[in-house]
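Exam revision sheet. Question 4 asks you to relate a sequence to its structure. Input first:
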Amino acid sequence: MEGILLVDKPKNWTSFDVVNYVRATLARSLELKPRNIKVGHTGTLDPLATGLLILLIGKKYTRRASELSHLDKTYEVTMHLGLTSSTGDDEGEKLPVSNHVPDITDINKALNHFTGNLQQVPPAFSAIKVDGQRAYKLARAGQPIELQSRSITIHQNLFKHYAYPLIQFSSSVSSGTYIRSLVEDIGKELKTGAYMSELRRTSIGDFSLKKAAAVQNLSADLIAARLQLLD
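Answer key, structure tokens:
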């Protein structure tokens, strides 16, 4: 059994939780040990995020992870104004910044400002390695971290809804873009501070969340029926 499987990752699951769940499901059906089932993914989602995860099943496909990890991605984003978070999302310690209430014109200007080819500093709480250690592990230990900016492309930020303190928008970005950093940058531009309160990935390249299966519904038969092959 080999191919790619589109999965809708639920909130509070890690990407590795999903991989392990699918591996165990297939192992039970095939009467094999989980370590003998090759399952990988093409790019993590934070535990608090939901949405599209591409799983790779079988040795032939797990070898293609890097090929699929560089595809553009689209997200539905909710940002919370007036506060910052130590982690950039709802999990961290919140600090008040401003009670200023920006209007929709200012919000659209800020969303448009952060489009095109940009330099972005990744969040400290990320999986980037610093001197061989994951940045988030160093951050949790209270160690100072200096991450270098990287080149990214934000194709479009599309305003959806605003009811202070929450702004909802969709963002189409290049691989390597951190939405938490984007939200923090928009908060600075609006002079209010902001953190990402919700995130849902809706597409990876031409792969759509609409074709994804809920993890909790997966069985070996459903996995086999939903596997897609690549050229």
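Marking note for examiners. Residues 73-204 form a domain with the Pseudouridine synthase fold (CATH 3.30.2350.10).
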